[in-house]
Amino acid sequence: MNDATQPPPVLVSMDGLRKEYGDTAALDGVSLQIRRGEAVAVMGPSGSGKSTMLNMIAGLDRPTAGAVTVDGKDLNGLNETGRALFRRRTISMIFQFFNLLDDLTVLDNVALAAQLTGVRAQQARQRALELLDELGIADRRDLYPAALSGGERQRAAVARALVNRPALLLADEPTGALDSHAGEQVMDLLIDLNQIGQTLLIVTHDPNLAQRCASRIVEFADGRIVGERTLERTP
Amino acid sequence: MSAVWRTARASMRRRRFQTAVIALVVMFSSGTVVAALALLAASSGPFDRVFAEQQGAHLTATFDPAAASDAQLESTADLDCVAEAAGPFGQLATTLAVDDDAAVEFPATIAGRDDPAGPVDRLDLWEGRWAAAEGEIVLNTAPADPGDPGAPLPVGATVRAGDGTVLTVVGHAYSFGQTADAWVTADQLEAMGPTAVQMLYRLDDHDTAADVEAGLDAVTAAVPAGSLTGAQSYLALKERISAELGIFVVLLTVFGVLGLAVAVLIVANVVSGAVVSGLRHIGVLKAIGFTPRQVVWVYLTMVSLPALVGAAIGTVLGHFLAAGAMSETFREAGLGNPVVSPWADAAAFVGMPLLVLLAALAPAMRAHRLSAAEAISAGSAPRSGRGLRAHRWLSGTPLPRSVSLGLGLPFARPGRTALTATAVALGVTTATFTAGLAAFATEIDGLIQRHEAAQIEVVGGPGGPSGATGLGDQETQDLLASLPGASEVTANLRMPVTAAGFVQSAELWFIRGESSRMGFTDQLVDGRWMDGPGEAVASSKTVHENDLAIGDDVTLELGGRTATVTIVGVVMGSGTGTVYADWSTLTDLTADVDGLGHPISYEVRLEDGTDPQEYLTALTGAGLTGQSTRQSDAVSIAVVGLATMFALMLGTVAALGVFNTVALNARERRRDLGMLKSIGMTPRQVVTMMVTSMASLGVIGGLIGIALGVVAHREILRLAAAASQIDMPASALATWNAPQLALLALAGLAIAIAGAYLPARRAARLTIAEVLHSE
Ligand SMILES: Nc1ncnc2c1ncn2[C@@H]1O[C@H](COP(=O)(O)OP(=O)(O)OP(=O)(O)O)[C@@H](O)[C@H]1O
Ligand SMILES: [Mg+2]
């Protein structure tokens, strides 16, 4: 339907976003728009507010001032329950340290996220298994996270993030805890996902990751956007 | 809901230890609550309960059978003030001797009754059967376990009545109202020649002495003049029983309330520990889309499921424990066989899980409020500067590095530190308090029974001992003193005497001999023990009731003669009108002590190291029977036993709570441990550090706990005693001594160390990679 000249619709929109922790401002007036299908990398020194911004987009925390709109929904207008319900279907996150539930097996970790949206247990496990298979860790499905390698854990986390087919995938240093080989694999995974239309927002210190995955790089410093450039993807 | 259930179930499965601790704490608590509630129910008004169970007689009247006909007596049942009546039953005052041992003879009132039941005085026929034929007799005995010392005559034994009739014991029944000492069939009694007939009445109005008096007047007016020969009100018996049980009821009440309070506090502590240690878990749940409400449900399920299981098991165990303990305590006191009310069961089974839910609600609401971002980061690393400063200061001290690091750890996470220290303090407070109560029970028991001072009691009849010695009163006392091992012997005669200015008549206790050596001095709450003629000591209740003070004179009057005594001391005791006086006061009041018709008993204090059993044997050899005072106080033995049981149960709950909190705290630090090992700490240093950190909390919590426990013990007992108008000697409240307290403090420390040591050692054994790997 889309005319080739018309840009895809905006998925995430931040306007004058500000977040204070006591005296320090972690975010100091951030405005940014992300369109559907884009892959945006956020880079910047440690403590510059990158994770904080991600938390605001995911609705994990409330901004002190400013607005965040995701898929046309103003997150400030939702209470915590509303944000949880919205997050389930629209936004997924992967973390540097995976944050899998230690008490559940890999399969259950992934299936649980699907069950939250009302999918029945049987179906949820089926979908989880398909994803694990695609990500190449189906044989690890009955192990607990503690028994997996870092790369395997991150792939399980990606499977969990994808199980509800989210409009937006947020990744906070997804390769930060992995060696270069495992990091490569996760990177390839993200590129493939973007190729089939998944919108990505990746926080990273790794210029290589940013170069390879992103179509746009946003530079952060002291809670502000200090630079932005669009890339020609090098396949 | 199923995502919630799945998550909660997985969490419970993976945190088996914590789940088990919650179940165990709730189990012990529910058990304690059932037992406590049952005891409270049973011991509040034990008299009224048993009296009501037996439909006891408010008024027992005896008549001259020659002056009033049976029909005339039966018609008194129709009087307006009479609710129910039983009788007339023939009655005979005689003696009973054990047939094959003529030496053991005791005075007895035998009544003729064909039926142990009836509208009034329903007897508890607890062994054998009722007398059905001539030659059979049922003895009035408080239920006891067979084989107990002082057990009654066995069924099948024969006794000989004063008129020579030989009777076979066919059963034992218990009349709480003590309407007779034994029963035979009506025909049998007729054959023996009754000296009186008795009527038993339950009255519509019976609350006060005046009510019962009015009932008696109505009965007297309805029968031929002069036919009433005696009457007894149930209120006298009630006085006596309440006086004996008073202090113990206070004690059990305190235990019951304490059990409830401790259970609630410790459950709350354990539950909030579970939530605090699950912060990161909460954050992750929220990040993947659990609503705040769902997170709350996960946590409530995680604690209430084990709580339900624990409550079920605990209620059943507590039920049987309480039933067993109570039936012993109360049966031996002649207070019937109370059942554990289903209310107690229900309250524990429903109430404890509800309490757990309530306790979990506060921390669960915290989980509700916490933003996901905050929860995830709170779970992973401390970000407090206080910890750093403390570390820096400690590292400047000459302590080993692992110790100074361990001492600094608690500063890094003040919230968790407070929780752990609270758990230790709570545990030690409980242990201190309960150990104090148990010691107090023993102490007060010793004070009341005086069995450290007066080890042997010989009960005699009027004018001297019963039995075949043929000795007079003074001769008996001399004989007792001459037996080997005797250190001091006193003769005691108790009787009501009119005292000027007393609201009721005084219950005088005349003592001949060195009464100051018989343990009374320990009972003093004020003044001194009497020291010769003209002096007297009163129970504290007597002093309160009659507004007396030390130095007051009291004029006693008996049969027209008077004697004046000066109050020189006050002893603990809830006996109404109890006054102790010297024997010379008795001889001032009457010239004929034997003619008073009141039995004289003797108390013997043995020389140190004398075996009471040996003395009793010598006593029997001399033709007298006595008993050890220690054996006769089954009630207090049972109460002390119960107190100890409570102390143990509450102590276990407290220990579990402490262990759980410490272990949780230690487990959480595993990642820190891996980190420290990665920078070169040895496993031994890691364990030292962990144990030091928890031990420092153990010491602080322990000290606070002991201080609180001692204060609580003193203040709560003082309040309870004041509420029940019982004064206690200071010695009874000061049951503490330094070694005991030190031991309790050490116990708290030991639990904290044990709770830290096990998880620390496990963590120390893991390779660095494993610890860091498992996040
Ligand atoms: N929960 C919090 N409480 C207090 N301060 C916080 C909190 N979260 C973040 N901050 C502060 O906000 C600032 C930005 O933190 P943020 O985690 O967003 O940085 P970052 O850019 O993700 O850094 P890194 O690259 O090291 O992950 C920092 O100064 C941090 O100390
Ligand atoms: Mg970050």
TrEMBL record, chain A:
Domain ABC transporter: residue ranges: 12-234
Q: Give the UniProt keywords, A-Z.
A: ATP-binding, Nucleotide-binding, Transport
Among SMART domains, the record links this protein to: AAA
| SUPFAM superfamilies membership | P-loop containing nucleoside triphosphate hydrolases
For this chain, one GO molecular function annotation is:
ATP hydrolysis activity
Secretion signal: which residues?
none
PROSITE patterns found in the cross-reference section: ABC_TRANSPORTER_1, ABC_TRANSPORTER_2
Annotated Gene Ontology cellular component terms? membrane protein complex; plasma membrane
Task: Name it.
Answer: ABC transporter ATP-binding protein
The scientific name of the source species is Glycomyces terrestris
From TrEMBL, chain B:
Q: Where in the cell is it found?
A: Cell membrane
**Which GO-annotated molecular functions does the record name?**
transmembrane transporter activity
- What kind of membrane protein is this, topologically? Multi-pass membrane protein
Predominant location of this chain?
Answer: membrane
Instruction: Provide the ABC3 transporter permease C-terminal domain boundaries.
Output: 254-370, 645-767
- Tell me the domain of life: Bacteria
Keywords from UniProt, A to Z, are: Cell membrane, Membrane, Transmembrane, Transmembrane helix
State the Pfam families in the record: FtsX (PF02687)
InterPro entries xref list: ABC3_permease_C, Macrolide_Exporter_MacB
Q: Which GO terms describe its cellular component?
A: plasma membrane
Q: Which residues cross the membrane?
A: 245-276, 297-322, 342-362, 418-441, 637-665, 686-711, 738-758
Membership in a protein family: Belongs to the ABC-4 integral membrane protein family.
* Protein name, per record: FtsX-like permease family protein
Source organism per entry reads Glycomyces terrestris
